[in-house]
Amino acid sequence: MPSEPTDPRSPRVPLEAKVEFLKRPEAYPERPRRVETVETHMSWVFLTDRYAYKLKKPVRYDYLDYGTVEARRRNSAEEIRLNRRLAPEVYLDLVPLVGDAADGLRLGGAGVPVDWLVKMRRLPEAVRLDRTIETGTLDEAELRQAATLLAEFYRRAPPVEVAPADYRRGFAASIEGSRRDLLRPEFGLPAVPLERATAAQLRFLEGRSEVLDRRVRERRIVEAHGDLRPEHIYLGPQPVIVDCLEFNRAFRILDPADELAYLAMECDRLDASAVGQLFLDTYGRVTGDEPPAPLLRFYKCYRACLRAKIAIWHLDEPAPRDRAQWTDRAATYLRLAEGYAEALP
User: Fold this and answer.
1) CATH 3.90.1150.10 fits 129-342, yes or no
2) Kind and range of the H or E element at 196?
3) How far apart are CA 229 and CA 41, in angstroms?
């Protein structure tokens, strides 16, 4: 839900006024020809000729808190730190938005911040992995470079200590949460694929718990990217992976096999299963870790249900747009989940 800033030093400037200011080319020191805007569930992104500026919305949910100016500054700084692990030349700076409603706003400079923006180098959309898949312009050598970058990142990542029972309990709670949300009658989603997928995941947790426990005992759990999707991977001579999930560390504590299965599931959705398999194969070659196929199917099934839930959550927004798009997207994920469930032991 939206929240007003509580920092007494910060002038109260409505989000709408900040957005309107940041839509203007004259707001930026580089004086771009025009500014494109993209609104997401949690942010506004302003695209100039060379840069992208991200402004977090003043929202609070169970899993994140952007409700104050200080919280947004802290999360923005963390976003820069974390994303420099896989995109060191992209995340440039943390920029204050200063001023007030009476005297006007300015980007950068002295004054009490009314908000903060992450400044990034703008990347060419034509080399984004999902776009290269859609346009048939995928370069296999560049794809292998990106897969190697990611595999080396996992190989170097220090293990995070997790109790096996806690690891399994986290999945059980998340599976039940996805089921509960996706069965809300106002969404009108098909119940059968969801019930089949949920039952298969819970059955795997109960009957094949040793497979998950082994991943923990082998110290495979690391602080990963957290939101590894094709639209976050940019190919080229120097590939980068952006948009790490910064707002909740618990969501980044993952088995690399889980994160790569998530990517592979998204590639399946784009009819590019070979791309997801290449990332998995490269990970195995670089790290020597070859996760068993049933575990990968479990992770795919789990991630498909989670993505269905995130898609349908868009209908909870105050004025949801493209209702059919998000309902269709959620149903697509549920069909994928049902397919993975059929192959689970």
Assistant:
1) no
2) helix 191-207
3) 16
Tokens coding 61: 């949910």
| Residue among 15, 107, 105 at smallest CA distance from 57 | 15
Q: Which residue has the tokens 């100039």?
A: 48
Q: Is the pLDDT of residue 239 over 70?
A: yes
Q: Where are the domains of the chain?
A: 15-122, 129-342
DSSP state letters, 138-193: --HHHHHHHHHHHHHHHHHSPB----HHHHHHHHHHHHHHHHHHHT-GGG---HHH
pLDDT at residue 3, rounded to an integer: 43
299-342 pLDDT, tens digit per residue, is 999 999 999 999 999 888 777 678 889 999 999 999 999 999 99
CA 61 – CA 28 distance, rounded (Å)? 31
Checking DSSP bridges between strand 64-65 and strand 60-61, what pairing results, if any? Answer: antiparallel
Closest CA to 302 of 189, 179, 129, 210: 179
φ, ψ at 159 (rounded to 5°):
-70, 150
CA distance 52 to 20: 16
Cβ contact 326:315 at 8 Å:
yes
Taken as a whole, the chain contains a residue count of: 345
Q: What is the pLDDT of residues 60-92, one digit of tens each?
A: 888 889 999 999 999 999 999 999 999 999 999
Cα 333 to the chain's mean position, in Å?
16
Rg, the chain, Cα only: 21
